[in-house]
UniProtKB/TrEMBL annotation:
Provenance organism: Cottoperca gobio
GO molecular function term, any single one: ATP hydrolysis activity
Descriptive protein name: ABC-type glutathione-S-conjugate transporter
Any Pfam family hit: TMD0_ABC
Known EC number: 7.6.2.3
Keywords: ATP-binding, Cell membrane, Membrane, Nucleotide-binding, Repeat, Translocase, Transmembrane, Transmembrane helix, Transport
Length: 1193
C-alpha cells in the first residue's frame, strides 16, 4: 500500500484507530479499502447479474420521474468522481505531485458509477421494479462513506481545510449516494403488458421492493387486516403464477415423463445386450414405470430372457430425481441463504470473546464495548433476516412440491389400469394425497440441515479446538459414539413407519367402505361390529406409534444430552490433563456459546434423518403408485377414416388384467355409420366388457379396435358429481337454452324439475344421493346427449327407469325416430320390447359373439337369441303390465297400453309366428291373474311434453337451500376450551406432571450453568486445582439428571399424546356412527375421510411435536429470564415492554394462523374431488369429457 499511498499516508495506525478515545481510520485505508469495497462488489456480481437479466425479461418499464432522477444522480456521481481525477492531473501540471491513490480511486469510482447508471437503465428495459444488487451497492457506498464523512468533519473542526475542492466534492458525492439509496427503496411501476396489472387482487410480493422483500414488509397489510377482522378466502391475495398448480404440476409431470423414458431406454438397452429378440407387446397398457412396460412373457427355457428381465427390473424411474430437477434450482437459492446464515452464526461467539476480554481490561476505551454490543445486535439482526429468507424459499418449495405431487397423483388416478385399481384403492389414493404429500412439505423446511448440520458441527469443533485445544477431541469421541445409537433408532423408526402406514391405509380403506355403505350399516344395525373392526386396526396403529414415540424419547434424550456431554468431557479433560489449564470465564462461556450452537444441529440432524426416513417411505409409495401401468390411449384407433363403419372390432381378444384369463374371445363387430346396434345376452356374458373394450378400458391381447369420431358413454351405474343438476348435464360445456330444453324433454327430466326445490339449479349431493336411481340414470343420459358426440355407448341405461319412462326415452332419444337418429348407437339391454326397432342385434354368450343379425334373422335361427327371449320375455311383460295398470289409473301419460304397443311392435314383423303371439298372450293372462310382486313406482307426472312449464325458471335463487354446506373453520384466537379439551384427553393429572417434569429439567439446566459460573470464578482466587473433582462431579451429576429428566418427560408426554390420540379418534368414530343418515347425505365423503386421515395424522404425529416444542421453548425462556434477572435485576424493567411487543406479535400471528387455517378445510376438497373422479374415471377419460380441474384447490 505504500506504493499507492506514499510514505506520508500510512495504511494502518493502531494508536490512531484503537487505543484512543476519538478513533479514526487512516486516510490511506479510507481511500483504498472503504472506497474500493462497493466497487469490487458491483464489478464481481455484474457478469452474473447481466446473464440473469438477459434470461429473465419481464417487459419494458416506461421511464418515470424517479428513474430519471436515478440516472441523473448516477451521471452526477461520475462527474464528481472524475472531477477529483482531473483535479489531480491539474495539480501534477502545477508541480504538486500526489500519490498514485489519488489517480486510481477517482478513476475506479467514476467507472463504477457509470456501470451503476447503465444497470439502472438496463433493469428498466428488463422490467425490474426494484434492484437488490444496486440497493446493496448504494448501502455499502453510504456505509463506507460514513467514516470519511466523520473524519473530514473532525479535520475541519481541528484545522483549516487545505484541500477545499476534494472536501467539497466528497460531500457532493455523499449527498448523491444517500439520494440514490433513498430512491432505491422505492419501486418502479409494473412493466407494460404485465399480468400483475390485470389481476384484481395481486400478491404484493411480486411488486415488493428489495427492502420490503427482505423484511417481509409487504405482508404487513394482511397482518393488520387479520388482526382487525377474521380473514376470509376473498381477502387473500391471488397466488403467484409460479406457485400455481397449472405451473408446478406440468413441470413435475414433464420431469417424471423424462425419467420414465430414460429408465425405459436403459431397460431396453440392457435387454438387447443380453438377448437380441425382444418379445412383442401384448397388452394395451403403457408402462407407468420402468418395470411396468417390459413386454411379453418368456418361455421357461429362455434363460437369457429371464436374466435380462431381472436386470431390466433394476432400471426403475426415480421420482426423487424428477422432484430435484423440477424444484431443485429454486430450493438452492434458499440453501445459499442457509450457508450465509451458518457462517454469520459463528461471528457472535468471537464477538462474545472480545466482549469478555474487554470487561477484563480496565483501561480500554468505552467505545469498544458499545461497538461490540452494536455488532452483536447487528449480526443477530442480519442473521435473522437471512434465516427467514431461507425459510421463505423452503416453505414455498415445500408448498410447490406438495401441490405438484397431489396433481400428479390426481392425474394418475384417472388413467391407471383396472389391475392397478385392485391394489390402489380410493383410500390409498386419498392417503397419498393427504399424508404422504404432506410429508414432503414438512421435510423440505429442514432438508438443508442434512448438509448444514455437519458444517456447523465442524465449524464449532474448529473454534472449540482453538479455545480448548486437543481436549475437545474427548467431546468429538462422545459425538461419534452417539452416531450408531441414532442410526439404530432411525432404522427402527423406518421399519415402524412402514408398518404404521400399512395400518393407516387399511383403516382409511375400511372407513371409505363404511362411509360408502353407511346406509346399509344403519339399516342392519351393524355400526358396533364395524366400529370394532376399525378400532382393532387403530389399536395396532397406536401400538406402532407408541414404539415410535418411545424411540423418539430416547433420541430426544440423546440430542439434549449430547452438547452437555461434549462440554462435560471437554472441560473435564481440559482441566485434568495439565495443571496450567485454567477454566476461566472467557474459555467457559465462549465454549458454552459454541456448544449451544452445536446443540441445534445435533438436535435437528436426528429429526431430519427421521423425517427423511418417513419421506423415503412416502416416496416409495408415491413412486410405486405413479409407476402403475396406464391405459394405452392408442389401443383404440380413433383416426378411422372409413366411411361405412363407425365402430370396427376385428379378431378382438380382451382381458381385464394381464394376469387374468381373457373375458372376450374372437370378437368381430362392424357397426355401420348411424345405425342402432343392440347387445343382448345373459348376465355375465360380457356385454359391459364389450363396451369397455370399445372404450379402451380393458387390455387388448389381440385384434384391432377402431372408432370414428367422438364417444359418449352412459355407464350401468350413473356417475353424478356434487354439483347442480345443470352442471351435471352441461359438464363443462357452454349453456345453450334450446339444446338444453330439448335434452331435458328427450330424457324425461322436465317433470322432475317441477319437483326439485331449485329446478335445474338444485344442488345434487355426492353420488346423486338426493336423486332416485331412475333420475340419476336419466341425468347421465342427458349428459351424454348434450355432449353431442358421434358414437354413443349405452350400457343398459333403461334398466333403472320405469317401463313407461323407458319407452319414452327409447322413442324420443335412442330409437329410430329419437333425437339420436343418424348417430351411431350401441345399446346394451335386457328389454326385448325394443329389439324389433333396432337395426342389428349382437348376442353374447360366455364372452363370444354367438349370433349377429337383425331381429327377424335371429328369430329364424332359434339359437341363443331365442333362449334370451324366453328368459326375459316374462319379466319384460310383467313390468309393462304394471306400468299399464298405473297408466290406466292415472290416465295422464301414455294412453296407449304398453303391452298392446309391445304387441303392435311384434305385429309389424310378419315373420313372427303365431306360437310366439300365443306365448305372449299366455304370459299376459298369468301376470293379470297373479298378485303384483313389485312396488309400483311409475312416475305419475313423468315425461309429459304437454305439461311443460317454466316453473323452475320462476324460482328465485334465494329460495333454494344449499344441500352441501361449505366447510367452515373457527376464526380468531384458539379458545381456552380447545386447550382444555386436549388436556382432558391427555389427562389433567398427567398434564400437570408433564409440566412439572419439564420444570425440573429446566431447573437442572439452570443449576448446571450456575455451577459452571462458580467454577470459572475459581480462576480469580487461584483455587482451580483444589476443587476440580468436586466441580466436575457436581456438574456431571446435574447434567445427567437433566438428561434423565428429559427422557422421563419425553416418555410421559408420548404416553399422554397417544392416550389423547386414542380418545379423540374414538370420540370422532363414535360420533360419526351415531350421526343421522341425513348428515351423510349432505356431507361429502372426502370431507369425512379427511377428518380420519389428515386430521388424525395431525393429532398422532404433528401435534405431539408441537406440544413438545412449546413446552421446551417456554421453560427454556422462563429459565433464561430467571437467570438474567437474578444476575442483572435492572433487566426486569426491560422485560415488560419486550413481553408486550412479543405477545402482540404472537397474538397477531396466532389469529392469522387461525384465520388462514383454510388448508385444513381445503385438504378435504381435493380428497372428496379425487374420490368422486376416481369412481367416474371411465367417463372422464372419454375424448368428449373434461376432467374437472384440481387446480382450483
Amino acid at each position: 500500500m505504500e506504493r499507492l499511498c506514499g510514505p506520508e499516508l500510512p495504511f494502518w495506525v493502531a494508536n490512531q484507530t484503537f487505543h484512543t478515545d476519538r478513533p479514526d481510520l487512516p486516510k490511506c485505508f479510507q481511500l483504498t479499502v472503504l472506497s474500493w469495497l462497493p466497487c469490487i462488489y458491483l464489478w464481481v456480481v455484474f457478469p452474473i447479474y447481466l446473464f440473469y437479466l438477459k434470461k429473465k425479461n419481464k417487459g419494458y418499464i416506461m421511464m418515470s420521474i424517479m428513474n430519471r432522477f436515478k440516472t441523473v444522480f448516477g451521471l452526477l456521481l461520475w462527474i464528481v468522481c472524475w472531477t477529483d481525477l482531473f483535479y489531480t492531473f491539474h495539480e501534477l501540471r502545477q508541480g504538486q505531485t500526489q500519490p498514485p491513490i489519488y489517480f486510481v480511486t477517482p478513476l475506479v469510482l467514476g467507472m463504477t458509477m457509470l456501470l451503476a447508471t447503465f444497470l439502472i437503465q438496463f433493469e428498466r428495459l428488463r422490467g425490474v421494479q426494484s434492484s437488490g444488487i444496486l440497493f446493496i451497492f448504494w448501502f455499502l457506498s453510504v456505509l463506507c462513506a460514513i467514516v470519511p464523512f466523520r473524519s473530514k468533519i473532525l479535520e475541519a473542526s481541528q484545522n483549516d481545510v487545505t484541500d477545499k475542492l476534494r472536501f467539497t466534492t466528497f460531500y457532493f458525492y455523499f449527498i448523491l449516494v444517500v439520494c440514490e439509496l433513498i430512491l432505491c427503496c422505492f419501486n418502479e411501476k409494473p412493466p407494460l403488458f404485465s399480468n400483475v396489472v390485470t389481476d384484481p387482487n395481486p400478491c404484493p410480493e411480486n411488486t415488493a421492493g428489495f427492502l420490503s422483500t427482505m423484511t417481509f414488509w409487504w405482508f404487513t397489510s394482511m397482518a393488520i387486516k387479520g388482526y382487525k377482522m377474521p380473514l376470509q378466502t376473498k381477502d387473500l391475495w391471488s397466488l403467484n403464477q409460479r406457485d400455481s398448480s397449472k405451473v408446478t404440476v406440468p413441470k413435475l409431470l414433464k420431469e417424471w415423463k423424462d425419467e420414465q423414458v430414460k429408465a425405459k431406454s436403459e431397460q431396453n438397452q440392457s435387454s438387447q445386450a443380453v438377448y437380441s429378440k425382444p418379445p412383442p407387446p401384448t397388452t394395451n397398457h403403457t408402462g407407468g414405470g420402468g418395470g411396468g412396460g417390459g413386454g411379453g412373457e418368456s418361455s421357461p427355457e429362455e434363460v437369457e430372457v429371464l436374466l435380462s428381465n431381472q436386470k431390466a427390473a433394476s432400471h426403475q424411474p426415480s421420482f426423487l430425481r424428477a422432484l430435484i430437477r423440477a424444484f431443485g434450482p429454486y430450493f438452492l437459492i434458499g440453501s445459499a441463504f442457509k450457508l450465509l446464515q451458518d457462517v454469520i452464526t459463528f461471528v457472535n461467539p468471537q464477538l462474545l470473546r472480545m466482549l469478555i476480554s474487554f470487561t477484563k481490561q480496565k483501561d480500554a476505551p468505552d467505545w469498544w464495548g458499545y461497538s461490540l454490543a452494536f455488532l452483536m445486535f447487528f449480526t443477530a439482526f442480519l442473521q435473522t433476516l437471512i434465516l427467514h429468507q431461507h425459510f421463505q424459499y423452503c416453505f414455498v418449495t415445500g408448498m410447490n412440491v406438495r401441490t405438484a405431487v397431489i396433481g400428479a397423483i390426481y392425474r394418475k388416478a384417472l388413467v391407471i389400469t383396472n389391475a392397478a385399481k385392485r391394489s390402489s384403492t380410493v383410500g390409498e389414493v386419498v392417503n397419498l394425497m393427504s399424508v404422504d404429500a404432506q410429508r414432503f412439505m414438512d421435510l423440505t423446511t429442514f432438508l438443508n440441515m442434512l448438509w448444514s448440520a455437519p458444517l456447523q458441527i465442524m465449524l464449532a469443533l474448529y473454534f472449540l479446538w482453538q479455545n480448548l485445544g486437543p481436549s475437545v477431541m474427548a467431546g468429538v469421541a462422545v459425538m461419534v459414539m452417539l452416531i450408531p445409537f441414532n442410526a439404530v433408532i432411525a432404522m427402527k423408526t423406518r421399519a415402524y413407519q412402514v408398518e404404521q402406514m400399512q395400518y393407516k391405509d387399511s383403516r382409511i380403506k375400511l372407513m371409505n367402505e363404511i362411509l360408502n355403505g353407511i346406509k346399509v350399516l344403519k339399516l342392519y344395525a351393524w355400526e358396533n361390529s364395524f366400529k370394532e373392526k376399525v378400532l382393532n386396526i387403530r389399536q395396532k396403529e397406536l401400538n406402532v406409534l407408541r414404539k415410535t414415540a418411545y424411540l423418539g424419547a430416547l433420541s430426544t434424550m440423546a440430542w439434549t444430552s449430547a452438547p452437555f456431554l461434549v462440554a462435560l468431557t471437554s472441560f473435564a479433560v481440559y482441566v485434568s490433563v495439565d495443571e496450567n489449564n485454567i477454566l476461566d470465564a472467557e474459555k467457559a462461556f465462549v465454549s458454552l456459546s459454541l456448544f449451544n450452537i452445536l446443540r441445534f444441529p445435533l438436535n435437528m440432524l436426528p429429526q431430519v434423518i427421521s423425517s427423511i426416513v418417513q419421506a423415503s417411505v412416502s416416496l416409495k409409495r408415491i413412486q410405486a403408485f405413479l409407476s402403475h401401468d396406464e391405459l394405452d390411449p392408442n389401443s383404440v384407433d380413433r383416426k378411422n377414416t372409413a366411411a361405412e363403419f363407425s365402430v370396427t372390432v376385428v379378431n378382438g381378444k380382451f382381458t381385464w388384467s394381464k394376469e387374468d384369463p381373457a373375458v372376450l374371445h374372437n370378437i368381430n363387430v362392424l357397426v355401420p355409420q348411424g345405425s342402432l346396434l343392440a347387445v343382448v345376452g345373459l348376465v355375465g356374458c360380457g356385454k359391459s366388457s364389450l363396451l369397455s373394450a370399445l372404450l379402451g378400458e380393458v387390455e387388448k391381447l389381440e385384434g384391432e379396435v377402431s372408432i370414428r369420431g367422438s364417444v359418449a358413454y352412459v355407464p350401468q351405474q350413473a356417475w353424478i358429481q356434487n354439483a347442480t343438476l345443470r352442471d351435471n348435464i352441461l359438464f363443462g360445456k357452454l349453456y345453450n337454452e334450446q339444446k338444453y330444453r330439448c335434452v331435458l324433454e328427450a330424457c324425461a327430466l322436465t317433470p322432475d324439475l317441477e319437483v326439485l326445490p331449485g329446478g335445474d339449479m338444485t344442488e345434487i349431493g355426492e353420488k346423486g344421493i338426493n336423486l332416485s336411481g331412475g333420475q340419476r340414470q336419466r341425468v347421465s343420459l342427458a349428459r351424454a346427449l348434450y355432449s353431442d358426440t358421434d358414437v354413443y355407448l349405452l350400457d343398459d341405461p333403461l334398466s333403472a327407469v320405469d317401463a313407461h319412462v323407458a319407452k319414452h326415452i327409447f322413442d324420443n332419444l335412442i330409437g329410430p325416430e329419437g333425437v339420436l337418429k343418424g348417430k351411431t348407437r350401441i345399446l346394451v339391454t335386457h328389454g326385448i320390447s325394443f329389439l324389433p326397432q333396432v337395426d342389428n342385434i349382437i348376442v353374447m354368450v360366455e364372452g363370444r359373439v354367438s349370433e349377429m343379425g337383425s331381429y327377424q334373422e335371429l328369430l329364424k335361427q332359434n339359437g341363443a337369441f331365442a333362449e334370451f327371449i324366453r328368459n326375459y320375455a316374462l319379466e319384460d311383460i310383467v313390468e309393462e303390465e304394471e306400468a299399464t295398470e298405473e297408466l290406466i289409473e292415472d290416465d295422464e301419460l301414455f294412453p296407449d297400453d304398453a303391452l298392446s304397443n309391445h304387441a303392435d311392435m311384434v305385429d309389424k314383423e310378419p315373420v313372427i309366428n303365431e306360437a310366439k303371439r300365443n306365448f305372449i298372450r299366455q304370459i299376459s293372462i298369468i301376470s293379470a291373474d297373479g298378485e303384483n310382486p313389485r312396488s309400483r313406482s311409475v312416475r305419475r307426472h313423468g315425461c309429459s311434453q304437454r305439461k311443460h312449464s317454466d316453473q323452475q325458471e320462476k324460482k328465485k335463487p334465494n329460495e333454494m337451500q344449499k344441500l352441501i354446506q361449505a366447510e367452515t373453520t373457527e376464526t380468531g384466537r384458539v379458545k381456552t376450551k380447545v386447550y382444555l379439551e386436549y388436556a382432558k384427553a391427555v389427562g389433567l393429572g398427567l398434564s400437570v406432571f408433564i409440566c412439572f417434569l419439564y420444570g425440573c429439567q429446566s431447573a437442572a439446566s439452570i443449576g448446571a450453568n450456575i455451577w459452571l459460573s462458580q467454577w470459572t470464578n475459581d480462576a480469580l482466587t487461584n483455587q482451580t486445582q483444589e476443587n476440580v473433582h468436586v466441580r466436575v462431579g457436581v456438574y456431571a451429576a446435574l447434567g445427567i439428571a437433566q438428561g434423565l429428566l428429559v427422557m422421563v418427560s419425553s416418555f410421559t408426554l408420548a404416553m399422554g399424546n397417544i392416550g389423547a390420540a386414542r380418545k379423540l379418534h374414538y370420540n370422532l368414530l363414535t360420533n360419526k356412527f351415531h350421526s343421522p343418515q341425513s348428515f351423510f347425505d349432505t356431507t361429502p365423503i372426502g370431507r369425512l375421510i379427511n377428518r380420519f386421515s389428515k386430521d388424525i395424522y395431525v393429532i398422532d404425529e404433528a401435534l405431539p411435536s408441537t406440544v413438545f416444542m412449546f413446552l421446551s421453548t417456554f421453560f427454556v425462556s422462563l429459565s433464561t429470564m430467571i437467570v438474567i434477572i437474578s444476575s442483572t435485576p435492572i433487566f426486569a424493567v426491560v422485560i415488560a415492554p419486550l413481553a408486550f411487543i412479543y405477545i402482540f406479535v404472537q397474538v397477531c400471528c396466532c389469529w392469522l394462523t387461525a384465520c388462514c387455517a383454510g388448508p385444513t378445510v381445503c385438504c378435504g376438497q381435493p380428497s372428496s374431488h379425487t374420490a368422486t373422479c376416481f369412481r367416474g374415471s371411465c367417463e372422464l377419460r372419454r375424448p368428449s369429457s373434461r376432467a374437472p380441474r384440481l387446480g382450483g384447490y
